[in-house]
Design a protein that fits this description.
With 472 residues, this protein is α/β, with parallel strands linked by helices. Helix content is 33%, strand content 15%. Helix 7 packs parallel to helix 9, helix 13 packs across helix 15 and helix 13 runs parallel beside helix 16.
Length: 472
């Protein structure tokens, strides 16, 4: 029987026990990524039962959510400023030492956001099953890995058994035809997809992204797309590995080498879906019709072209009208309103969606020789220490600083309002992160999701701006 990429990975990992009408499958997990927020309770449960981490060699920890990004805050000061965050970091370090789990703590050259360091170190590999106690684990699907977030109790299960109970989701192909236009990025593509299918459009499915526009993306663009699959309700997002994937992985710290590399590439090349394979559903998207996108409401699906207007009551369904009214009320907008030219208080460039080197390079090219508008604050938070070091080697930090932006340490930061990296009530931010829920970036804060290019353009003008106008 012809198989999709998802079918192939699932079958190869259903080796412990297949799914039956009464019971879920028991999947083997190749890589378990952990951080300080969702692991303490899991480690405590292992300790209570007298268990050890079954495969510490397939478990990797990093510190990211609770880490301070203000360069002036060291671990000692963190204990005074945010005692809870300091406790989480210390507990993770102790638990990893006790169980023999490799960890990248604060100050380590490989520390960073879990979904940034996995790929950049070569820990993420095609055909793997990867789990983490974090919603945006789908990022790793860009490499042809079946990757998804799990809850704290499941974190404990994987620690103890290296397996996970799962029912097989349905499959959804999102076929992206055409080419992205100038100034239109992978972030605009995924925001456009979510706006088209809705935040429940992929519920109960694993999404496989196909088509020429997907193949034309570099690996960091593919990661951005897969990262936000969860915001459409998907269990995971996948892109079949190809030469672009192999080129990215070759020579990375944890990638195979020598003969093992050649064998790995040969095996990875078999993962692409069979030509005759079918999906439960298929959605088509025309990339050439997309513009830079920006959200206007309190859900990633509430997105419009940068030149567009917030929908009116007459333009949405009866079911959507309460959401429209609630979102516009919270955001301080009106139905039918255009967003271009709206004053912006804060610009945040970072998160596991858009904090990689190419994101910083794109923003820096637009900012070079310009100034962040007076009255607008811009924070630039690299996704990892390796990204930070590479950016500094290219002089990107100097471009950001010269423009008046803040150059920070690696971490999750304002994506979820950690360690003081947050909006004040009422502030409006253009953010390259992945969620714009009420209060996500600080109580009363208002978030507009956009690409690094749109964020940088808006920082320069101090208002929501079309990056294409600054690139001409």
């Amino acid at each position: 029987m012809a198989e999709t990429l998802f079918d192939k990975i699932w079958r190869r990992h259903e080796v412990v026990a297949p799914e039956t009408p009464d019971l879920p499958a028991i999947l083997h997990i190749d890589l378990h990524l952990i951080h300080e927020v969702t692991s303490p309770q899991a480690f405590a449960e292992l300790d209570r039962r007298g268990l050890k981490v079954r495969r510490p060699d397939r478990t990797v920890a990093t510190m990211d959510h609770s880490t301070p990004t203000d360069p002036s805050i060291d671990r000692a000061r963190l204990k005074i400023i945010d005692a809870d965050a300091a406790i989480q970091l210390d507990q993770l370090a102790r638990s990893c030492e006790q169980h023999g789990v490799p960890i990248f703590p604060l100050g380590h050259e490989s520390q960073g956001i879990v979904h940034v360091i996995g790929p950049e170190l070569g820990l993420t590999q095609p055909g793997f099953t990867i789990v983490c106690g974090d919603s945006h684990t789908s990022t790793h699907g860009a490499f042809g890995a079946l990757a998804f977030g799990i809850g704290t109790s499941e974190v404990g299960h994987v620690m103890a058994t290296q397996c996970l109970l799962q029912k097989k989701p349905r499959s959804l192909e999102i076929r992206v035809q055409g080419e992205l236009g100038p100034g239109v990025t992978a972030k605009d593509l995924i925001l456009g997809i979510i706006a088209q299918i809705g935040t429940d459009g992929a519920t109960g499915h694993v999404v496989e992204y196909t088509g020429p526009a997907i193949r034309g993306l570099d690996m960091e663009g593919r990661m951005t797309v897969c990262n936000m699959s969860i915001e459409a309700g998907a269990r995971a997002g996948l892109i079949a590995p190809d030469d672009t994937t192999f080129e990215y992985l070759k020579g990375r710290a944890y990638s195979p080498r020598g003969i093992a590399w050649e064998r790995a590439v040969e095996q990875w090349s078999t993962l692409a879906g069979d030509p005759a394979a079918s999906f439960d559903r298929t959605v088509e998207v025309d990339a050439s019709e997309l513009q830079p996108m920006i959200t206007w409401g309190t859900s990633p699906g509430m997105a419009i072209p940068i030149t567009g207007r917030i929908p009116t009551r007459a333009e949405v369904t009866d079911e959507a009208r309460p959401g429209l009214e609630k979102a516009t009320s919270y955001m301080g907008f009106e139905a039918g309103q255009a967003l271009l030219g709206k004053a912006v208080d804060v610009v945040f460039l970072g998160s596991c969606t858009n904090s990689r080197l190419s994101d910083l390079q794109a923003a820096a090219r637009l900012l070079e020789g310009k100034q962040v508008s007076a009255g607008t604050r811009m924070m630039v938070v690299p996704g990892s220490q390796r990204v930070k070091k590479a950016a500094e080697a290219e002089g990107l930090d100097q471009i950001f600083r010269a423009a008046g932006a803040e150059w920070r340490e690696a971490g999750c930061s304002m994506c979820l309002a950690m360690n003081g990296d947050r909006l004040a009530p009422g502030q409006l931010a253009v953010s390259t992160s992945n969620r714009n829920f009420e209060g996500r970036q600080g109580p009363g804060g208002r978030t507009l999701l956009a690409s690094p290019l749109t964020a940088a353009a808006s920082a320069v003008t101090g208002k929501i701006s079309d990056p294409r106008e600054m690139s001409r």
